[in-house]
Amino acid sequence: MYTLYLAKGTSALAAHILLEEIGATYETQELSIPDQDHQAPEYLAINPRGRVPALQTSGGVLTENPAILAYLAQAHPDTGLAPADPFAFARAQSFCMYLAATMHPAFAHKLRGARFADDPDAIDAMKQKVPDNMAECAQLIEDHLLRGPWAMGEEFSYCDPYLFLVHRWLGANGIDTADYPKIHAHMLAMKERPSVKKVMAEHGL
Ligand SMILES: N[C@@H](CCC(=O)N[C@@H](CS)C(=O)NCC(=O)O)C(=O)O
Known about the structure:
Mean pLDDT: 97
Bound molecules: glutathione
Number of domains: 2
Shape: globular
Number of helices: 8
Distance between the termini: 26 Å
Largest sheet: 4 strands, mixed
Low-confidence stretches: none
Strand order of the largest sheet: 2-1-3-4
Helix content: 40-55%
Strand content: 5-15%
């Protein structure tokens, strides 16, 4: 039994979709970021970083999308959602880490610039730069990282729910995924999956 701490429409979507994909028994605890639930003492006791997602497991709490996603896949080996081969697994992690360490923080500069600078002009300049950075990340994914049709090639994996966030990060910056045919096809294929339909509806998307 897992508990996923999430806020609707955030990067917690990925773990939520993966929980559905593996058929896990889980419950969700919804937090409101506008209401600052993620900074409440009760939640900081679960995740001192004050971010979603967090996943309560039988072994303790996990945070950070790549760790949560890889754990869920490896904890349910029958699903075949994590490569068993060490090199293939490292490539999958490389993919997820690019999203977590480069693209997601670049996206965060849109709303969270005050974490990186105090000068309002600098914050605004960072915000203006976000669409360019999103486009650059998308091009790299399109040209080098997304093998197609799924993130890692022919087999659906734990990386795919995470890649699904990319079209949301692009759309939030006025970028049409149709400019990136492989990302666009991936988004459409994801939207056909029952897990995605269910979770999107629950998130009101
Ligand atoms: N590196 C973290 C980032 C998590 C993160 O920033 N989550 C956002 C929602 S997508 C959040 O909690 N935002 C609230 C805030 O920044 O205060 C991960 O990949 O799990």
